[in-house]
Every structure is written in C-alpha cells, then in structure tokens.
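FIELD: query
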Amino acid sequence: MITTASLKTHSWKDLADMAKRKGLSGWREMRKDELVRALVRAAKKRSRPSAPSKSKKSPTKSLRRGTTIKAHEAHGNGSKLNGTKAEGKAHKPTAKQLAVAERIHKVNAERERLKDLSGSFSLAKGKRKAPEKDRLVLMVRDPYWLQVVWNVTRQSVKRAEAALAEHWHTARPVLRVLEVDGGPTTSTAERVAREVEVHGGVTNWYLEVSSPPQSYRVELGYKAANGRFYSLCRSNIVHTPAPDSSDVIDENWTDVAENYERVYALSGGYAEDNQSGELQELFEERLRRPMAPAATSQFGSGAERVLNRHRDLEFHVDAEMILYGRTKPDAKVTLAGEPIKLRNDGSFTVRLAMPDKRQVLPVVASTPDGVEQRTIVIAVERNTKVLEPMLREANE
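FIELD: result
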C-alpha cells in the first residue's frame, strides 16, 4: 500500500518515474513533496469502489426517462392541458396592455370614420339616411365665400379604395377648388386654385375664395401621398359677384330662403348650360318648395293662373347713376362744369339720371389757388331693349 511515509524514502527521480507510469500530468514541474501528494491522491482514487455496470440501469435515469415519455404522451394526448392552461398563463395580457390596445382601436376607428365620406359610421347609428346617389353642389354665399354640400354613397368610396390600391392607406379626403375661365359660348379652361382637406364627419363645407368676380367649380375625391387624385364627383359652375354688390347673403338656410333666387342664380341655377339639376334638387329639399324655371320665376307664381285670357301687366324699369368720391375738404370739384358741394371730410355723392344714350362726364378737382388740377372722365352708355310679352299656358 502506498503511503506518504514510504514515498518520502524515494528520490525525486524515482517518484517522477512512478508519476509518469501512472499518467499524472505536470509531473515534470513538480517538486518532491508535490509528487508525493499527487501519487497519494492517485492511489486513493483507485482504491474507491467502482461505479455500477452500464448494463444496469440507474434508477435516476429510469425515472428521468419515464418522466420524458409521460411528458410526450401528455403533449400528444393531452394537448388541451399543455396548450390552453400553460399558454394562457404565460400570455395573459395585463390591464395596462388591454388599455393600450383599446386606445389604439379607438384611434383607428376614428381615423376610418373621418376618412369615409359616405358617413357609414353615422348611418350605422341611425343619425341619417344613406344617400342614393353621389351629389356635389356648389353655392355662392358672398363675393369671398362659397358653400359646398355633398352626398357620397358607400359604393363610391369602395371604388376609390380599389382604384388607389396600395396607396389607399395614405389617401385623405380633399376638396379641389378649380378656377374656370370661359363661358357657354367659348371653351372653358380649368386650373386648380387650391386643395382643402375635409373629413367624413360632415356633408358641407365653406370655402374662402379671392379676386371676385370669378367662376369656380369644385371636385370631391381622395388624394394619396404619391400625388394621385381620385375624383368622386364634380360640382356645378358658380360665379361670385363683385365685392361692392349691395345684396348681402347670410350663411344659413333661413336667409337662403329669403334670398333663394339670388343664391340660386349666382350658383348657376338659371344658366343655360346647367344640365345636372342637382342644385335644383338640393334647394327643393332644403327649402321644401318647388324651384320654378327661369321663365316662370320672371313672371311669378301667378303666371300659371293665366287661362288663355289676356291681361295687361304694367312693368316699367328705369336707371339712375350715382357718382361718389373723395378729395381734400378745401378743394373745388366740378362735374361737367357744374360745381359739387363737398362734405366736411371731403367726400361727395352725386345722383344723376341715366337716359338711353352715351354720356361722357368729366370730374375735375383743383386746389383753392388753382395751381394743381386733376381730371377723371367717366363714360357711360345705356341701351334699353323691351322684349315682346310672353304668356305661359296653365299646363306648362
């Protein structure tokens, strides 16, 4: 038996040979004491009882193998336990995650509602009836404001979505304002003045315009991020009046009822090229009264009571002209050689008759000492034409 005392009696060389035979690593760098300790440890390892034979299965290994087999069986036959309960525990969302998901859902729903010009979200809540056809009507409110009213069907929105394809998710509802040059007797040219982004939460919009008098038309559609515009419908052509027009139109339908003929005429209702009839339909729906054609409107509602009997309708029209201006309070002003009286602020107003002829009216202002003088000449011509009277049959 190898002991520490017996090994110490050998020389380093003998101990090195023994370590080499036993296969100890690093024996070349060991001192004598280290070789002794290493040989003693090696002897103790050899004297321990050997491990059970490999042919005999270890209880631990058997147990582990049995557990693995049962686990596989449970996965195959009891997938409900493994797939539902375990997975549900691992992926159950927290209250914070549920709140975030709810907010995202609301944001997406609101974005889709504002994008849908057909208003299907409002229709689902029973707020209004579904439109039967697409309609876009443009009306003049005053020289600088237009009003747009539209109805869009759900089918038209679906067609726009299909046409824009992958660009639909970037598309937004847009009103395209077009300036129109030309008239019924000449070819018209249209140019885009500007584009106004709208949303599906409303069915009317007010547009600010400039440089009256001017003709306009609008288009309603979707514009994608790549610049492509898909038009849903086009409006009638309207003509804004001059800024100094004396007639004032309010912005609600109550006042439209009082001024409906003017709004209707400025919006192209009596125009010869007005073929759509959508403007007339809108006015009849909102005002709840039939809109007479231009000829009937000129004669009034009593024209239909003319039952083949001749009646004399007195009708006289005359015209006057008003000249007004401003200069320095101490200046002298004459009109066609006649002096004009100035107000304290230097302003003046002259009311003149306007006969059927051409008039040339020089207006002259001069300083009190007569050193400086300025002249403005106004040429005006009146040409009155009386047409033959026209009678409409009662059944027309």
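FIELD: remark
The first strand starts at residue 135 and ends at 142.
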